[in-house]
Amino acid sequence: PPPPQKTTYTPCEVRRHNTISSCWIVVSSEIYDVTAFLNSHPGGVKSLLRYSGGRKDCASDMKFHSASAVKKMKRMKVGRVVECPGCGAGWERGVGRMRDVYKSEGDDPPCVIM
Question: Using H for helix, E for strand and C for coil, what is the string for 49-113?
Fold first, then answer.
């Protein structure tokens, strides 16, 4: 049998998915791979890329999307963000961004990829 699919990712792992070839967004700690949908998104590619890699929690943005759009997004779920066991970087729900990972653009991820 195939190995079980990974369903939890550290902020450092999510951060690497911030390009047009691999675009993940975070909605309330849940991760969605929206890469295949980039060119179809009514708001355009940039509207998704600017939050890719977990730069911001997209939960508030989802409030104005239709039920159909939310249903489509749910099918793109790849997992959820968990705290990094190596450095403690994690997802701050109240702030809606990844703690310690995006202190400044260009910083290397603070933890080792598991």
Answer: HCCHHHCCECHHHHCCCCHHHHHHHHCCEEEEECCCCCCCCCEECCCCEECCCCCCCCCCCCCCC
Instruction: Using alpha carbons, list the distances in angstroms from residue 59 to 8, 9, 25, 114.
Output: 19, 18, 10, 26
Q: Quick check: pTM over 0.85?
A: no
22-69 confidence digits (pLDDT tens): 999 999 999 999 999 999 999 899 999 999 998 888 888 888 889 998
